[in-house]
Amino acid sequence: MISLICTSFNRFNDVEILLSSLRCQSVSKDEFELVFVDQSEGAFSEIINSFPDLNIVHIKFHRCGLSKARNIGILKSKGNILGFPDDDCKYYSHTLQSVLDSFKDEPNLNTVIGRIYDINKEKNIFKNWPDRAKKISKFNFYSLCSSITIFTKNKSFFNEDLGAGSNFGSCEDVDFLYRKILNENISYSPKINVWHPEFTLLDMTKNKSLNYGLGFGRFHKINISFYLFIHFLLGNTYIFLRLLITLLKLDISSSKILYYSLKGRVSGFVTR
Q: Residue 27, exposed/middle/buried by CB under 10 A (0-12, 13-18, 19+)?
């Protein structure tokens, strides 16, 4: 069984779209469950009750961070494979079948990563996802990581200091994956596709950019190694150069977002 761990706060329409996509999976409905950690001020009960054909474990919980909510869901899960859909993502009809096929094709595989992809437009979302399968290592995991594309056999937990709603608002997924790389067999498969709405730099707020930056810095601090230190420096150099370019173009809005991102990255790294 695949256990899908999801949480949401008042995003009722998005969750209904996710559930509709789960209803259309090509695998049997007894092959997966949705463990839903409900942080809403109201309740998702009406929406969940409209999907009686799905196996949904509904957990009502107070407002908390993303990683905390996922860990609660993991504790309640029954599956031997875990996945972590966002409340605003969507699975294609073949998504879960592709996950099962990946583990079947590689019996020694512990974790598989898919891609965020728009099948209708034949277009990558967020990243330049490769068209070919790859083994995941400490040298390529960061560029191929997103929590909604991770499916793992081992019941591991997220660092609750990282991720949305925490003091360091990102990189809970790369931290989760990085800790697995040290002793697990992990692969990337372009056959596993998940959809997520796109956003650009202009969709970011100053606070969100700062929080994302804090998570980036904190992840590198708590997992510090020679490679990750170089990665941290290169990542900051890239943001700094983009900041200079936007300033030269007098793009003040983008400059502010990039400035707060850089500020957060440095602050997250130096904070004890």
A: middle
- The domain ranges of the chain are 2-195, 201-270
Q: Rounded CA gap, 65 and 60, in Å?
A: 14
Please, are residues 114 and 193 in contact by the beta-carbon 8 Å criterion?
yes
What's the pLDDT band for 25 if we cut at 50, 70, 90?
A: very high
**Percentage of the chain surpassing pLDDT 90?**
87
Residue 35 phi/psi, 5-degree rounding, is: -95, 105
d(C-alpha 268, C-alpha 155), whole Å:
28
Q: Is the pLDDT of residue 42 over 80?
A: no
Count the Cβ atoms, other than its own, within 10 Å of residue 190.
17
Length of the chain: 272
For residues 154-174, average pLDDT? 93
Pairing state of beta strands 111-118 and 123-124? Answer: antiparallel
Superfamily name and number for 2-195: Spore Coat Polysaccharide Biosynthesis Protein SpsA; Chain A (3.90.550.10)
Backbone angles phi and psi of 236, in degrees to 5? -70, -35
- What residues have CB less than 8 Å from 174, skipping those under 6 apart? 141, 142, 145, 219
CA atoms within 13 A on the CB side of 25: 27
CA 42, CA 49: separation in Å to the nearest integer? Answer: 15
- Determine the residue type at 197: P
Q: Which two tokens stand for residue 268?
A: 């997250």
Cα–Cα distance for residue pair 69/56, rounded to 1 Å: 16
Q: Which residues pair with 6 in a beta bridge?
A: 36
Residue 201: pLDDT band (50, 70, 90) is: low
